[in-house]
């Protein structure tokens, strides 16, 4: 149960008393009583796995179990050198746990910063509290963009329209009146009000869904599912091969029992690409930590991977390319309208909306209310309508109804005022039309016949970092599409100022074809779209996806929620509405559009590098399986002890893979992970196995007498190391100074083992004579040339 101090549950920073006549909400004593009974909204909302789950997930894996059994066997029958692979696994698992715990700490810290705080009325005072502190019976206030945190019943409604599409799939907003039910998980699209909480905690309709959606997870990721597929095939291969190897070494050969066990385990252990899963987790965890330092909350970890695959970014203009605030630059009366009277109208309109949007806030700042007029009815702004309105009693017996919104929506086509508006839009200015309605405000056709009275000209503040971010996307071959509810010409002018390619081609979304394939063609051909409705934003995302595009959608307003939900990756601004933050996979807590390139770059680094190092791990798996099969078929002793393959894995895979996985990588992530990795792993592994086995057979005929077995193994190990080192050199391309240094350092490490007497004894590696060692080098060189040729043929014949 969440603990709440009843005397300190309200945020004292911004307490607001409700207007006279409104409900005062629960008292402090009633809150304390409900807390004592456990009637608290205590659903655990987590951005990460628990510590127990992290430890369990890293320790209790299929391959850790297999290696653990083999490790225990080796500790019983062989020297400690042959059990090194077990210590490596312990160290790797420890690293994985530590990194994921660091990522958890980062995620949990950011989640607290980005947590939405509903406004609750208690003791007659409205203040923000944590969602988890809502108690049964609380009076929760609502405004546009607010997500409904718990189930409840409407107590107050002022044009309250709620979107329940995330729960029911129905896109049309529902008008709510006092007494109507509200479901958690829905959100307010227009108007305002308050509701009484009737179900909290796990009883709330969407509580279980919310808990599942916010959980730290690595599922639904092509990378993770691809690795799982590979591991499944490896398991199928490993079981029969291991059985054959056991029979071959224990039954067919009349060797020393303990030595046979050691060589058998030496054949099984390298088949397991145990470090691949771990390295993927570590790479993702470090990605979360790096992005966390830039105030970027990754709510679903695969979003890092998803954004790396994105080829189209849909941007909402307001709040993304422009800052939230605006300034009124001019009021242009139309006809013989009196400007002083119009200022009073605008002041009254501003006062009529308790939750003004950015445009109306600018008007409120420019034209304060004179308090002479009384609002008798109001119509909140809606993204679907494109206008708001209010009816007033003017204090002198006169009554009037006014509308404020998009000129091209309120005015008929061909109206002379539209030409003047067009010139202003071309300068990137936003223009609202103030019009006097002819009918009642609640009439469905209230805008019909409205008489234009004035143009309100607003200037939008461009984000200083937007131009650089758009340039980055252009350089990375990511298309940027500006999708806005504003006038298309105005949006195009803003985009042109920021240097967006194709900004001159603006499209009014009201003229877009409804058929999906035709819409997709229009979207491919143009870059700027205005007068887009929330449902159209969703349709446009779907149309782009139907063309094979991977789409990211950014936004901060409630009108972006449907599109954010359907996009491959939804990105919300931290200052955006609670609803957008709830459905987005990535939240930019610093509200900086310039953080997006960092997210894209981090995703590309993770995916590109994991694809690289996966090839290293799987080449080892392939050559281990092939060598084991060759041993079984030819009925010879297995080539290596576990210590030999531990040394090879450490120098040609483990250490270099760690550095390569964390290196910069700007290549856009490509699909078909399994195919892309296996097309290199199969030829590389097969050639390495054949070359190693050829050296071994040659050594068996060359060496005789005492020490022959060690000399045979040493020659085979030399060949396998040199071939594996060449595969590493290929994977490390394109070369930089540190990549060359990394490959050279691994080569020097092996040379050290071959030349230092203590290390020779420890690893049982000693080259005997000169003939066969040089033959091993020659075979390795020939095999490396074949692998180089094979990789080039693969690139040409089997494109990714």
From TrEMBL:
Q: Which Pfam families match?
A: E1-E2_ATPase, Hydrolase
- Keywords per UniProt: Membrane, Translocase, Transmembrane, Transmembrane helix
The cross-references to Gene3D superfamilies, in alphabetical order and at most eight, read: Calcium-transporting ATPase, cytoplasmic domain N (3.40.1110.10), Calcium-transporting ATPase, cytoplasmic transduction domain A (2.70.150.10), Calcium-transporting ATPase, transmembrane domain (1.20.1110.10), HAD superfamily/HAD-like (3.40.50.1000)
> Which regions span the lipid bilayer?
59-78, 233-252, 272-291, 613-632, 644-665, 677-699, 711-731, 738-759, 771-791
P-type ATPase A domain boundaries: 118-212
The way this protein sits in the membrane is described as: Multi-pass membrane protein
Q: Does the keyword Transcription apply?
A: no
Q: Kindly give the SUPFAM superfamilies that the UniProt entry links to this protein.
A: Calcium ATPase, transduction domain A (SSF81653), Calcium ATPase, transmembrane domain M (SSF81665), HAD-like (SSF56784)
Q: Where in the cell is it found?
A: Cell membrane
Lineage: superkingdom? Bacteria
One GO molecular function term of this record is: ATP hydrolysis activity
Q: Which GO terms describe its cellular component?
A: plasma membrane
Q: Where is this region: Disordered?
A: 1-27
Alphabetical list of PANTHER family matching this protein: CALCIUM-TRANSPORTING ATPASE
Its name, as the record gives it, is Magnesium-transporting ATPase
